């Protein structure tokens, strides 16, 4: 096979027939027109085949290459798709796994429409690509439904995220490709058409959620169809686990030589860091985030057609309705999601009410405190119900959420909002108030493991220069920015004259006053002027030192007993991590990777010589209801369990890692959570509170069978 081949076919040679078989097809080209097909690292295999329903298809193998593609173009000129709304392609996956297919449609000049879909294993189906930009984010969720149905009741594969724009009067080509396959991937293609309207896109979101908050069209073992089935599945009690060899807090009795202080603390012994229980025993923290009942809230106002059998918003069901408003673009609250305000319904809490009646909250708390130890967990992670920690069955954490009217700085990555300005006296006051609130009633509780401060702050920007985002953002601020004033004061002290700074940075700077301008275009670091990177690094460290010192001092004033567990880093810089190591007892990171070693630079962390807690990790799949699988996706529920076991084993085997907390307890709503539209299958339990049996069993075995014995006992 040549690397690049041309094939001339009539439209029907690819199954692209322009008769009057579908509305609008005749608008594409004349029935007797021909197309040109280019194969770039794609091999056409054999002759015409017949699918199970008798439809003709052709087999194509996409070879290992950066981007193999099959290009369909008119023999001359361009196609006129005026009045058409969808491209439809007959496709079947010949592999035993899902295959990623990219569809690109070229328009005039540089116009292009792009869609990426996962073609599942199974029978042939119709791939539908809307001929306009669309995204499930506009429908209020981060990931859209996978399989709507066409007007004949047959399943279709819908591209719910389409980017770009086209002049439909000038279509130059359709490209079918995939991103860098490591081995040949074979798909079968048949008929390709364009049709008017976007009925399939509308149908994809119509009536997709049942009364229990489940995806109507999906099938999985834990799905229920009646209140009786729901009650039976939820109320099944987990097996009792004997906690032999552990102290009251879950610490290991066989690890000797650790200090007993009456509080959780950290200690390094024989080259390994430990969390240590109040009774003086080694404790590897296996936690779960967000063990709460209000995570099932999803907006219903304005998109009522998505939901079937919603209960009335009065009487006994009124308690499960509410209103919220996430419209605050400056703080990133809406995050590009449609349906970000209005009335919501809490599917998870409503299901708990169906199970246990008016005492559902107390029953849920009892059940959660039975389940978590039975599944091998020993810690209540961030954002969990305070009452669970106060029951003194499991150690727990507290979150210090620092909010207020203090100044802020953009690092260029403001998904959760701009960075707090720690040089603003109002931030110091806000931190004080937040610590007082978080420590109220718990400062003398030995079951409290410690405090996290904020979550996933934007310490870095995005792109190649992302490390310097906070420095660039500081200098771009207005003259009244406390951080900017502090940065300029640092530069003036170092360089004395503006001419000296200008020479070091390779810029024109007429006076120090020029730095005050809002939007000042600070230079990006470059090899010709190494002083820029040095100065930015110094500033980033000072910024982080000021933030962590402020929070740490407030904690020590109001709670001298408990640990400062860091800031739950996501995007980060070396300077921020190093500053945290000075002021925090534990470094915490949210790690979305297959292994901790692939999400963290453990060599750097070992050099800092501080204990490390993984504040979040998760593996999701799309086979249990919610459409999303999260940033670290696997194909199915079995692989979720396998991935969990490998991750916690790798975490426990590292001498600096002292725990790992799963995100999170329950699945997110199918139609997206109120906060930001996330709708992924992360849960130990579903939106119905039914445990995912196979996954939970794999988790239990990993927690009880592996982790507790990877830390060797004292000799």
Explain what the structure shows.
The protein contains 15 helices and 29 strands. The longest helix has 29 residues, at 530-558. The model is unreliable at 1-32 (pLDDT under 50).
Short description:
Helix content is 25%, strand content 22%. It has 15 helices and 29 strands. Helix 10 (530-558) runs parallel beside helix 11 (574-583) and helix 14 runs parallel beside helix 15.
Write the layout of secondary structure elements.
Elements: E1 4-10, E2 34-40, E3 42-50, E4 56-62, E5 69-74, E6 86-93, E7 99-106, E8 112-119, E9 125-130, E10 156-158, E11 162-165, E12 173-177, E13 185-195, H1 199-205, H2 227-235, E14 265-269, E15 272-276, E16 282-283, E17 285-288, E18 297-299, E19 321-325, E20 341-346, H3 347-356, H4 360-374, E21 379-380, H5 386-390, E22 396-400, E23 408-409, E24 419-420, H6 425-439, E25 448-453, H7 469-476, H8 482-495, H9 498-505, H10 530-558, E26 563-564, H11 574-583, E27 587-590, H12 596-599, H13 602-608, E28 612-617, H14 637-653, E29 657-662, H15 693-710
Parallel strand pairs: 9-10, 17-21, 17-29, 22-25, 25-26, 27-28, 28-29
Antiparallel strand pairs: 1-2, 2-5, 3-4, 4-13, 5-12, 6-9, 6-13, 7-8, 7-12, 8-11, 14-15, 15-16, 18-20, 19-20, 23-24
Helix pairs in contact: 2-3, 3-4, 6-10, 10-11, 14-15
